[in-house]
Please model this.
Amino acid sequence: MGVYSQSFELCTSRKGLHEITGQVREVVRASGLGSGMCNVFICHTSASLCIQENADPTARADLEAFFERLVPPDQPYFQHTSEGPDDMPSHIKSALTEVSLSIPIQSGRLSLGTWQGIYLFEHRERPHRRKLVVSVW
Amino acid sequence: MGVYSQSFELCTSRKGLHEITGQVREVVRASGLGSGMCNVFICHTSASLCIQENADPTARADLEAFFERLVPPDQPYFQHTSEGPDDMPSHIKSALTEVSLSIPIQSGRLSLGTWQGIYLFEHRERPHRRKLVVSVW
Amino acid sequence: MGVYSQSFELCTSRKGLHEITGQVREVVRASGLGSGMCNVFICHTSASLCIQENADPTARADLEAFFERLVPPDQPYFQHTSEGPDDMPSHIKSALTEVSLSIPIQSGRLSLGTWQGIYLFEHRERPHRRKLVVSVW
Model:
């Protein structure tokens, strides 16, 4: 058994949660693996990953709003501000969520619960091109 | 080498940390694996996982109290409230902790530190039946 | 394919982020693996792991300052204080960050983004000897 991996890029047009469950499922399908594990890794420190409720969009809006309030921009003690007021909050929000997610595969499918979706959490205001690596074993 | 996996359910009678180290160890033992990795995955977005101090129960009580204060219910901006005031805080607390934990196995045993226990962190008040998948490779 | 693992210890002389990317890379190189996965696990509940910006040191200083403010010592509701005022905040900061990190390996190298470094996040004031397990498969 080796590890099958595929990278993909996502252009984020706005701050907040962007669902990537479909793209991850596609890699699992392409691998042909029946049972095993899948890892999603994001190669950045100002965007991150999380698994969240995929049904009601207000759950995602509330989650985004909470993180905005927990890590407000323009803190007087921030020194790392050369890239703008959303730079340092982005790093902090990344540290509070995930850079890497491992999910079981059973019968050729991700073992996600009914209400679980995989999301890229973009923390920067401006559009960014984000690189992700999906590994399956 | 393939991946050996087993699912189990836990009925949570109350909010807070519920130790599951024993159940995870049982799967590792059943797998017969000498050295490798173990992953614990929770199939929900309103309960999560964490590794915490397993000795003094006050450490867990303080951790639970901190999360209650960090993510209070009834925030004026919460829109996702149809399932009650503990619904949205549950999703946020899940995003702040873990949905997936990977732990090394050495000499047939989880390589946990002396004071590390694996916990299911239930964020809902009412009892819930929670599904977990343990994978070993 | 089996799992290759190596443990190492780090003596932390001060609170905050300590880069361990070099030590993890060394284990990947020693494993001789071309493509696969690497996991870093910390065997403690008062120090943790994170992947953060490795260029500008002010990003790390700001991150440390944020966590100090988010989880202040001497909360009136803390009961777990026998090991000092930084004991309980350490457990909470660990729960908010990572105990385990899985990173893809491609062409014999960690697939980290340009600005990503792996850090041990020491939450205790006093020097500690921290044990980490690096697993490669």
